[in-house]
Amino acid sequence: VRPAFASSRTPSMRPITVLQMSDTGGGGGGGMDRQKSKKKGLSTIVIDKTEAKMEEDKKKEEMWRLVLHNDEVNTFQHVQRALCTVVSTLDRKRAFDICMETHGIGKATITKTWRQKAEQYCLNLQRQGLTVSIAPDKAFEGGGASGKGPDMS
């Protein structure tokens, strides 16, 4: 890829400068080569740069559970509406099933998702007055495993 930028020279403007980037440095030795040449009022800079490799041992991001806790304050209707509003992947029947499980056991998994999304859901449900928390999927103990799968939206 060699983008070049140049403009015509007029008496009131500076000399033309052409910048070029090249990835044909030969071998990809991990360094940067810089070359500069001048020709008749033109200046050219060529920078060879090797592409950084991604770390192969990159840790896979783990899934988190969004957990609803029984609070004896909110009605089933309010909880069901809040769940469907905040977690758009839930339908009313699934939200009702989560309410029933929470009422019977004391807590239930709403969904499993990435940490950032779980935190967002948690805060939004807390704003609705619900008692919710998040926990890493691998460390979750008890309360039912009703999370049907990851929500990656």
Global mean pLDDT: 74
Please tell me how large the radius of gyration is. Answer: 29 Å
Instruction: Flag low-confidence runs.
Output: 5-10, 51-57, 147-153
Strand arrangement, largest sheet?
Answer: 6-4-5-7
Helix-and-strand structural type: alpha/beta
Sequence of secondary-structure elements:
EEEEHHEHEE
Number of strands: 7
- Count of separate DSSP helical elements: 3
Report on this model:
There is one protein chain. The chain is of the alpha/beta class. It has a domain at 74-138. Helices cover 25% and strands 27% of the residues. A 4-stranded mixed sheet has the order 6-4-5-7. It has a 3-stranded mixed sheet with strand order 1-3-2, with no helix packed on it. The longest helix has 14 residues, at 92-105. It is elongated and about 85 Å long. Mean pLDDT is 74; it is low at 5-10, 51-57 and 147-153.
List the helices and strands and how they pair.
Layout: E1 17-22, E2 33-39, E3 42-48, E4 63-69, H1 76-86, H2 92-105, E5 107-114, H3 115-127, E6 132-136, E7 150-151
Helix pairs in contact: 1-2
Short description:
The protein is α/β, with parallel strands linked by helices.
Name some characteristics of this structure.
153 residues, alpha/beta, 4-stranded mixed beta sheet, 3-stranded mixed beta sheet, 3 helices, 7 strands, disordered C terminus
